[in-house]
Specification:
16 strands; Alpha-Beta Plaits; nine-stranded mixed β-sheet; alpha+beta; about 400 residues; Aminopeptidase; globular; 2 domains
């Protein structure tokens, strides 16, 4: 068995981590279609072209590079995303892209003969700034022009405007779709973003399925008033409505959720935002997750009912916008078995497991066989500056990815 060069992969990950790095909180800021995100895409394009790989960026901002002509034979595709959440870590997404690059380097320098092309994708806008996973949705052809024109982030920046700032036309996103017959398989290597593998000292996770996720932007509208003169029982305090809903989350999960359910209020904006003014409006996000689409629907209904009741109690108006709804997705049984087999051949411990976080795999699985490989996150931390995976786990996971790609492309 050939193996990857971990020192070379380390250097690539460290180089990418400098783009968008913040010295104050040590987080990485490559929010989708920001300047840092686009710098990372052009950095990658220059890197892989200089190493002799075919490469291009499509109309959705996805960067592709690889070996062989996927127009003549179906390709084995691997990859992940380059964008991060604000104050994110250096591995989430980036690992899947740069491990794919390291696989290509290893195949090339060892002159490995394969029957099918092997390509890597660095998807755009996976972290959901504008809702959904736009890059992989574009590849699989499940975006439409109505959504593309209306999609916006929690600060009311529109996707079409953010793309235009970087010379991308949202009208070209629809041209990014790949026909299913162009793909033979898709693999994604990712950190677990949870504590299971780390706590149980297991090297490899073979993911069986990916949680669904819905995202809302909620408005509770009351009346701004003087904090010193407005009697407590006469206020229409939007923050009190938000606080009441936060206390309802535990009950909603207990009554309508499962042990896989997650509901998170992640971003809050109180208006007008003065210490001496009763908040007249609360704008916040709700993100719900579960492995069952039916359970997700029950959760959404319960959130809606709870917010309606809270709004009546506090004399508020309740409005919400559903930014995205991504259904749960099973991974390919055959590719999951290949992942298990390759881990065993490398004498690595392996666990079949679900993914509570969303990944590009859940969309690629709709048009091809798709497999998702996890490696441990130290203490389960992700989406934070202290996100870390040990280099020996990165090496193990990338070698398993290499072996899986060789088998599927042979």
């Amino acid at each position: 068995m050939v193996s990857i060069n971990i020192e070379r992969l380390k250097d690539s990950i460290r180089d990418l981590s400098k783009i968008g790095y913040n010295d104050e909180d040590h987080g990485v800021y490559r929010w989708g279609f920001t300047d840092a995100d686009m710098r990372a895409r052009h950095w990658l394009l220059d890197l892989v072209k200089n190493e002799g790989f075919d490469a291009h960026m499509d109309g959705a901002g996805n960067v592709f590079f690889g070996i062989g002509d996927y127009h003549k034979k179906p390709a084995v595709l691997t990859g992940s995303h380059l964008d991060t959440v604000p104050a994110g870590g250096i591995f989430d997404g980036a690992l899947g892209v740069l491990s794919g690059l390291e696989v290509l380097r290893t195949l090339k320098e060892n002159d490995v003969k394969l029957e099918h092309p092997v390509w890597v994708v660095a998807t755009a806008e996976e972290e959901g700034r504008f809702g959904g996973m736009m890059g992989s949705q574009a590849i699989t052809g499940v975006v439409n022009m109505d959504w593309l024109m209306s999609a916006h982030d929690a600060d009311n920046v529109y996707l079409k405007d953010a793309m235009a700032e970087h010379g991308l036309d949202v009208m070209n996103v629809l041209d990014a779709a790949w026909p299913a017959e162009r793909l033979k398989a898709f693999y994604e290597l990712h950190i677990e973003q949870g504590p299971v593998l780390f706590n149980e000292d297991i090297c490899i996770g073979a993911v069986e399925g990916i949680s669904g996720v819905f995202k809302w932007i909620v408005h509770l509208k009351g009346k701004a008033d003087h904090a010193g003169t407005a009697p407590m029982n006469m206020r229409s305090d939007a923050f009190m409505g938000l606080a009441d809903f936060a206390h309802e989350i535990e009950r909603i999960i207990a009554e309508d959720g499962t042990d896989k359910t997650r509901i998170t209020v992640g971003k809050v904006d109180l208006k007008p935002g003065s210490p001496h003014t009763v908040p007249g409006e609360a704008v916040f996000t709700i993100v719900g997750r579960d492995m069952s689409n039916d359970v997700m629907q029950e959760l959404a209904d319960s959130c809606r009912k709870a917010l309606s009741a809270i709004a009546r109690k506090h004399r508020l108006m309740f409005e919400y916008e559903q930014v995205s709804w991504l259904k749960p997705q099973a991974c390919s049984d055959s590719l999951t078995q290949i992942i298990e087999n390759k881990a065993k051949q490398r004498k690595l411990s392996c666990l079949k497991m679900p993914s509570g976080a969303g990944h590009d795999t859940q969309f690629l699985a709709q048009i091809t066989e798709a497999g998702l490989i996890f490696i441990p996150s130290v203490n389960g931390v992700s989406h934070a500056p202290d996100e870390w995976s040990h280099w020996h786990d990165v090496e193990a996971g990338t070698n398993v990815l290499l072996d899986c790609i060789v088998e599927s492309a042979s």
